[in-house]
C-alpha cells in the first residue's frame, strides 16, 4: 500500500481529482521508490487510483523501478474508496502476481491496512508505504486480520516525525 505524494493546494480552481504533486511530493516519491528497491521490494504489478496525484506518484515509482508506466492498471474505484471497496479491488487482483503495489488515498488506505493487519496505524502519511505479507496464493482469500505488516516507512521516518 502506497499513499500518493504530498499534493499541491495552490490552485484553488482545481478539483480534488485533478490536484498535482507539490515540490515535496515530487521529491519524496523517487526517494521512497529507491528505499523499496534497496530492500528488493519491487512489485510485479502496479495498480493505482487515476487521480492525478496518485497517478503521478505511481509513475515516479515505476520510473525508479524500471517498470513500464504504460503497464500501470488504473482503477477508478480506488479514488475515495472505503476499506470494503479497496478489499474488493485487492480480492480481484490476478493471482499470477505475487506482489502488487496499490497507490491510493486516505482515509481508505490507513483503514484497510488496519483491517488487514490488525494494526493500529493512526495515519499513513503522504508517500508512506506499508508492506503486507499474506499466507495465501490467491488474492481472493485476503480478508480481515490475515496479513502481517512487514514494513511501515514514510519520507520523514529518518527525522523521527510523522506527517
Automatic annotation (TrEMBL):
PANTHER family: OS09G0287300 PROTEIN
Protein's organism: Arcticibacter pallidicorallinus
Source superkingdom: Bacteria
InterPro entries listed in its UniProt record: His_Pase_superF_clade-1, His_PPase_superfam
Residues bound to substrate: 53
Pfam families, sorted: His_Phos_1 (PF00300)
Protein name: Phosphohistidine phosphatase
Amino acid at each position: 500500500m502506497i499513499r500518493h505524494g504530498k499534493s499541491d493546494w495552490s490552485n484553488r480552481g482545481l478539483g480534488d481529482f485533478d490536484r498535482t504533486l507539490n515540490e515535496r511530493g515530487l521529491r519524496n516519491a523517487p526517494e521512497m521508490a529507491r528505499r523499496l528497491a534497496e530492500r528488493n521490494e519491487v512489485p510485479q504489478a502496479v495498480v493505482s487510483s487515476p487521480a492525478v496525484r496518485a497517478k503521478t506518484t505511481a509513475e515516479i515509482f515505476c520510473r525508479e523501478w524500471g517498470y513500464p508506466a504504460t503497464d500501470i492498471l488504473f482503477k477508478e474505484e480506488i479514488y475515495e474508496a472505503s476499506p470494503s471497496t479497496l478489499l474488493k479491488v485487492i480480492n480481484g487482483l490476478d493471482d499470477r502476481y505475487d506482489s502488487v503495489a496499490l497507490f491510493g488515498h486516505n482515509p481508505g488506505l490507513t483503514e484497510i491496512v488496519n483491517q488487514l493487519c490488525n494494526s493500529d496505524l493512526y495515519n499513513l502519511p503522504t508517500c508512506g508505504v506499508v508492506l503486507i505479507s499474506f499466507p495465501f496464493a490467491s488474492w481472493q482469500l485476503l480478508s480481515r486480520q490475515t496479513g502481517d505488516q512487514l514494513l511501515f516507512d514514510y519520507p520523514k521516518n529518518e527525522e523521527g516525525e510523522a506527517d
